[in-house]
Amino acid sequence: NLKRADDSPALLAKEIPDIQIDFSAIAQGYALDRAGLRLDALGCGDYLIELGGEILSRGRNPQGGLWRVGLESPDTESSGNLRRSVDLSDGAVATSGSYRLFYIDKDKITHIIDPRTRRPADTDLWTVTVVAKDVVEADLRAKVALLLGSAEGYRHLERCADVEALLVRADGERLMTAGFSQYVSMMPKR
Q: Mutual orientation of helices 135-148 and 150-159 as an angle, nearest 10°?
């Protein structure tokens, strides 16, 4: 049995007994969730914390509005440019992608290993951004969807309660779960 950062139960089942789990992939999310619980315990009602690109927010920004988190465009022509933002309060944002950390052999090879094949993930997705209540959940769902690919990953995310997502395929097509539009806004062009 696993426990979430708020000590609520979370279940994990393996269909293949030989598969091993390395939790370092979600260590940043776990650390942020724990830090958030500590800030909550100290009475901090408004904060935005980031670790390695994962984000956790509570309350409102100093101007009293929602926290605005920029989303980098994964296409090569605009890498480093913020094209969209996610506006949130009391939530988490995590992005998993294959567009930045990779190497080229004969093909582009991602740093993300598919546990089903024990090989680099063969995915048609560049990036998956997930909004959830806690960072571990957002990070885990983003990684799973990336491994599953756009069609199956999208269906998986649509079935998840309290999770919304933006999936960007390698061909540039963007898929959004039904409720993601409530969080996203376009950034002004510079």
A: 150
